[in-house]
Amino acid sequence: MIEQIGSIANSIAAVVVVLGLCIYAHELGHFVAAKLSGMHVKEFAFGLGPVLFGFQRGETRYTLRAVPFGGLNDIAGMEPGQRDVDRGFYTRPRWMQIVTIVAGVFMNVVLAMLIFWAIAVFRGVPVAGSEATFISGVLPNQPAQAAGLQADDQILAVDGNTHSLWIASVHPGSVAQQAGLKEDCWILKAGPHDISVPSDLIAALMTATAESVPVAVVNSRASSISEAIQTLRLPSLPPAQVATPAAAVRLAEQDLGLTFAPLDQNTIVRYISTRPEKFLALTLLRNGQQIVQTVQSEATWERFETVTAQGKLTAPHRRVGRIGVILSPETRRAGVIEGLGYGVVQSVGAVVSVIDILHAMVQRTVAVEPAGPVGIIAMMATQAKVGWAAVLSLGGIISANLAVINLFPIPPFDGFHLVLIGYEGILRRRVGPRHETIVRLTGIILIMFLFAWLVAKDVTNLIQYGTP
Question: Are 380 and 15 in contact (CB under 8 A)?
Fold first, then answer.
């Protein structure tokens, strides 16, 4: 009972801290830029709802409100019809208005950078070139704990499989090269089968009834997700008995011309996911000794990344296997300066990734599966069970998402203010308060409908599948 209460409290703390930080950082950016621009900020509040605590300093009132999601940065003159307020937002030069608006987005990127920097310094960064996968934690009352798996165990093989479907090299003139497969591609699917290791691929090619089999491939060197997802074809193979995973690796090299990279973390997760309620033999390295532990996976409903027959990347709900471990790559501690560089790369990469995914959604190469507020809270609670490093990592991604979403050119997002400023700058006249009010209300109503739809969708998924 005490453990359950602690878990709930930890989940609540994760949600409040991470989402609160994301929103506070955004509002703080607006606040600082407004103050530096000489604007009159009437109130700066953290949270929404009734005021719990507040104090006045200078011309600004600072308050803490009851609901820790949201914030208020009340800059004078931003409401329709209040353009000529003394030291108001619209009385300042347009470049100051733009800086004040963009500052919120900028602070979300900075927060993401600081989060990833903290993870790099205190938890470490992945060792370049290493595919080693370690168990960094074993969740209580899960199959892995019952099977005797321990933290710091290194996973060497799963059911004898020591290779992934990440293509390390393609032999010149081989069948694979003729099919269009390239180095640094990852094979996700063969025919109707979701696959994770070479033995899965060979089995799919041997059991095929057609002369060739479509294979879904993700090219890591592509400039965007839309270009990364490809459907190629490999010839079917004559039926034969492939006794071991090692034999499948040799057959892939000899008959297809493919050399696969060693087993990695993503492959292990995908292999277990595609085998719910199955007994799995894990080859582990523990204290310098190789041991084999057998664990039976549990079946649970979660989203599973796959590719449709039309070549669209999607993540539908399905029954997947889980054993209750936290996996991590081989890591090393980073210094403060190196960690800062890592944080910059990760935060910018997260922003670019969000933009890329939105672009792919528009082009319909990625299925639209947005998470609403309930879904985000549920994901936070799940990550809280894994650990605070996982919570913070998700927080960095959410902060990067907020940076991009806030640039949408519709009310009440910051992008609307940028469009309004630009529009007025081009026409050299102000938009009438009536028209501005209509546009604002229309945008807010649309957002409210979207918000309600996302909440309903999240709740439905939670009821039906137990996960958003």
Answer: yes
| CATH number of the domain enclosing 313 | 2.30.42.10
SS3 186: strand
- Helical spans, DSSP H, in 123-158: 143-147
- Give bridge partners of residue 259 from the DSSP assignment: 169
- As a whole number of Å, the end-to-end CA separation of the chain is 26
Cβ atoms 118, 110 nearer than 8 A = no
Range of the domain at 228: 133-329
Q: Which two tokens stand for residue 44?
A: 């700066």
Q: What would you report as the CA-atom Rg of the chain, rounded to the nearest whole angstrom?
A: 26
* Six-digit token string for 455: 């909440």
Q: Contact at 8 Å (CB) between 293 and 284?
A: yes
Count other Cβ atoms within 10 Å, centred on residue 148: 14
Q: Final residue of a domain: which of 286, 312, 329?
A: 329
Residue 354 domain flag:
no
Grouping H, G, I as helix, E, B as strand and the rest as coil, residue 301 is: strand
Helix, strand, coil percent content, the chain, rounded in steps of 5 = 45, 25, 25
Does residue 363 lie within any of the structural domains?
Answer: no
Q: pTM for the whole thing? A: 0.82
Give the pLDDT means over successive 10-residue stretches in the chain (468 positions). 50 70 87 91 85 89 81 80 76 90 93 91 85 89 92 94 94 93 91 92 90 89 77 89 86 93 93 94 94 94 81 82 90 88 90 81 68 60 64 83 87 86 79 75 83 78 75
Residue 435 lies in a domain: yes
Residue with tokens 């308050």: 63
Q: At what angle do helices 94-122 and 414-427 cross, to 10 degrees?
A: 150
Same domain, 325 and 225: yes
How many Å apart are CA 373 and CA 354, to the nearest integer? 17
- Number of separate domains in the chain: 2
In a domain, 378, yes or no: no
